[in-house]
Design a protein that fits this description.
Elements (H helix, E strand, L loop, with lengths): L1 H5 L5 H12 L4 H14 L6 H18 L7 H5 L7 E2 L11 E2 L3 H9 L4 H11 L8 H25 L4 H11 L2 H14 L2 H10 L9 H17 L6 H9 L7 H7 L5 H4 L4 H21 L5 H21 L7 H30 L3 H4 L16 H25 L5 H25 L5 H18 L1 H9 L5
Parallel strand pairs: 1-2
Amino acid sequence: MYQELSSAEMPMRNVINALTLKFKNLSDDDVVRLTQAAELERRTVQTPDKWQAVLAALRPRLNDIRPPRIPSLTRQFFKPVEDMLVNGRRGEKRLGQIDRSSLMPIWNWLQNSVAGQIIDTAQSHFVKDGSEPKPGEIETILRPLRQAARDAMVLALKETENDTRKLRLLAASVGGPQALEDFKEFALALSVSDQLLGLQLQLEPNFNTVTHQHIEIARASFHAIDQSNPEASYLVPMVFLGRLTQPWEVLHLASAVSRLHTEELLMSTDFRIVCDRLLDLLRAEQAAFENASDTQARKLIVHLKSFVDIYSGISHVIPIKKQSELGRRLLECRNKFSDQLATRVKNLSRFIHDSIPDAYVAPESSDSDTTSARVPDLSEIIEYVSAMADFIVEVSRLSHRTNLYFGIDQDVRHLNEALDKRLIALTLAYRQRGSISTDLLDQYYTMLESAFCKLSGSEAVDRLKTVKPS
């Protein structure tokens, strides 16, 4: 499969995208088996890139399934920053985020640096006689490697401080200016790698809320990192953020650990980075919502709920003032999302009105000119209206809970007025029975029935039942 895709010298990113499509319909069991095979085979020196591409293509499925993974030297080496990894970045580099695409260039740079010999030694110990090291042996192998890597990276960065040529060369060798920022942050994380790994061991991979026990763990981790490298203290909430299923819960650490109960104090500390990450999550949900089509009701509802959860979660944990910096940025996100909601609701009103020409729905007389109008295919219209009705019901429910969309009641009222007008038109069409076919009328009835049932209540449904001849 890989050979088939890569034979025409296809760029690696295109190979990964093509493989992702091929793997989309694999069962969970097949994904696990393929992952295990790829992780074993990539140890073969001759073809590691091939299996790296397969694993990269499987990553979207692995994020959902989260099967046990076979340890590899590179995976364990980068483990201190695993909670900071992101799959692609929108815009500029942010603290607390390291792009996965930066990892292999860093690893390759280390292999070509003074750390290369130590990597070879670690690799020989890591896979010995085809077997894996025991869990207790892994850190014994990796600790000197991480120390050597940090020393090499710090030295390289120091040499670039007053030398722009060396800075450009280093950036080029690790994948560009943004990748160089990832390089710097990884070097910082290596300076406290033991503390980060200790924190990871105390936190379950996915948890919902921050408890008193978590707060005590965070306090101890802040203290331990402060003793080693105070500049790296912001990495503590990053580990929590990477493991919380409700990411806004990380703000409880700010109020409990630092005794910060106001937003102004919060934004003046390392927790500002956390707020930036939460705002990025809001914007990501907003972008995903904007890019989904109107017929993808389930997808729209998922992103709507996620946006509302994050927004209301932040507002619940930390009192937000509208005129403050965080307040303004939150309101900007909310207002943009609200505008997108309003546009979709209003589009449905227009769509219902324009979905079928008046000459077909309500011909004024039996000799109405319908020959020049195109008879629409209502199957897609029915799907769209039904999907959007589900979505609007959810919008209405969540908007009343969070004040996300102030105009929802008025826009739904306009939508119901549009439905009523088409109901009247449909009544006339059944009565006058112009040149429009009964089958087409029945399809239009089905569309209105779906919308009425979800949006307009029992009275509207009862009115609709009187329209169609028995």
